[in-house]
Amino acid sequence: MEQELSVALYQHLLGLQDSRSSPEPPGAARELQLLCCDIDPELIRRAQQSSPFPASISFASLDFMDSGAREPFLSSYLERFGRSSFDIGFCMSVTMWIHLNHGDGGLLEFLALLASLCTFLLVEPQPWRCYRAAARRLRRLGRDDFEHFRSLRINGDMAESVTRILTQQCAMELVRSFGSTGWDRSLLLFKSASARPQGSG
Q1: Bin3-type SAM domain: from which residue to which, for each copy (predicted)?
Q2: Residues 44/60, Cβ–Cβ less than 8 Å
C-alpha cells in the first residue's frame, strides 16, 4: 500500500484533515496502528522516510506469499499489541499480481490467509482487462509472458470470483459492495462469519 494512501486512510479513520495538524495526534491515535506492507523495499524505504505518523503507521517490505518471512513477522507484530488478528485488512490492487505470479492456487491461498488474519477485509480486485493489459505490456517489452497467465481457470469477472472464494471457501460474508473506484474497480467489504471481539472468552 503506497504511503499517500496509507496516510490518507489513517487521517480518515481518525477524522484528521491534514498531516500538518500534529505529528502524532493524541487520544484515539495511540489506539490506532496501521501496518502497511509492500514487496518493493525501495517503496517502503521512501514511505518510512516521509511518514508524518511514524509511531502509528509501520511500513514493512514483505512478500506475503513467503510463509517463512510472513508468519514470524506478522506474529511478532500482533504480539506487540496483544492481538492474534487484525480488525481490518485493506487489499488494494494486489490480487492480480498474486494471481499472475502464483496462479489460481496462489490466489486461493492469499485470500484464505487474509480471511484468517482479519475480522473485516476491504478488497479492490483488478478486473480481467487489467490482466490482459499487464500481459500485453510484458510482450511489448520483449519479455516472457506471466508463467500462469494462460492457464488461469479463475478468470472473467474477478470481483465475482473473489466474492465467491471468500464467501464459499473462507467463511466470510459480503457486507457491502461500494461500487467502482475512479479506475472502474469494485470495492468489496467482507466480514468474518465467525468474528468475535478481541479478548472475548
Answers
A1: 1-195
A2: yes
In the chain, where does DSSP find H-type helix? 3-14, 41-50, 67-79, 95-117, 128-140, 158-168
48 CB-near residues (< 8 Å, 6+ apart) = 54, 59
Whether residue 134 sits in one domain with residue 96? yes
Nearest to 111 by CA among 164, 186, 155: 164
Domain total of the chain: 2
Which residue, of 57, 84, 111, is where some domain finishes? 84
Alpha helices in 54-156 (DSSP H): 67-79, 95-117, 128-140
